[in-house]
Amino acid sequence: MPVPKYDALINPLLEALRNLGGSAAIQEQEDEVASLLKLSEKDLAEIQSGNRTKFSYRLAWARNYLKRYGALENSARGVWALTAQGQKIKKVDKEEVKRFVVALDRKERKAKEQEGNLTENEPMTWEEQLLECVRKMSPDSFERLCQRLLRESGFIHVEVTGRSGDGGIDGKGVVRLGGLLSFHMIFQCKRFKGSVSPSVIRDFRGAMVGRADKGLIITTGSFSANARREAQRDGAPPIDVIDGQILAEKLKELGLGVEVRERVVEDVRVIAQFFDQI
C-alpha cells in the first residue's frame, strides 16, 4: 500500500508505541509502524525531499501532532514516550487532533504577530543544512571526511583504499577496545539521498569475508528496515550502519564542520507585591 498521509499514521503510531512498551526511539517506531501497515520496501524508500523518506517525514508530522495534543513527549536523547494522558488513549479521532492543533497554531501565530516575531518560512534544521553540505562534497572528499570521523572516534590505522571492483570497500582501519582488544574493520561511504537496500548490505558482506572482523557502512541517506535487519542477521557477520541522522549528530559531537555556541537565556519576572510592601 502507498504511504498513508500523516493523519492516517496517528493511530498506528499510538499502537506501535504501546506494542513497544510505551516508549521508543524513532527508528523503532518506524519499523513497528511499517510492520503494522505492511508497507513494502518500495513504499518505505520513496523520498519526500532532501534526506527524508516520505514515510519518515509523515510519521514525524504524526508525532508532532500527538505531542501537541498532549499524548506524546520526547527526551533530549530522541526517545519518544506516551504521556500519562497518552497511556489512557487506545484510539483518537484524528479530526479532533487536527482541530486541536490548528486552534493551537492560530493561538501561537497570533501571539507571534503581536510580538512581531512571525516568519513566513521555516528555516532548514541544522541537520538538513549539514547533510546538504556533505552531499555536495566529491566522493573522494566524503571518504576523507569519513576517515577523519573514524580517527576522531578512536579508530587507528584508518586508510582510504577505494578502488573500483573492490566490492564497495572504501577504506579500512582498526578498532581498539580498552587498549587490550583490536578488530580489523572495513568501511563503505555512500553519499546517498535515498534508502540503502538489503542488497547493498549483502554485497558488502560478501566483500568483507576473509578481510576483516567488522564492517561499517556510512551514508548521508537512510537504511530501509530490511537493510537494518540484514545488517544484523543471525548467523551472518554483523555490519554496523550509520545513517544521515547519526552522521550529523556525530559530526556535531566531534566538532567537524559544526560549531555549537551556548546561549544563556534569562527568565525575568517582576514581583509586583515587593513594591507594595515598601
N-end to C-end Cα span: 71 Å
The overall average pLDDT, rounded, is 86
Q: Approximately how much helix is present in the residues?
A: 40-55%
CATH class of the largest domain: Alpha Beta
Structural class call reads alpha/beta
Strand arrangement, major sheet? 6-7-8-10-12
Which value, in Å, is the CA radius of gyration? Answer: 23 Å
Total strand count, please? 12
The CATH architecture name of the largest domain reads: 3-Layer(aba) Sandwich
CATH-assigned fold name of the largest domain = Trna Endonuclease, Chain: A, domain 1
Compute the number of structural domains: 2
Question: What's the SSE pattern?
Answer: HEHHEEHEEHHHHEEEEHEEHEHH
Which stretches are poorly predicted, pLDDT < 50 over at least 5 residues? none
Major beta sheet summary: 5 strands, mixed
- Gross morphology is globular
Oligomer: single chain
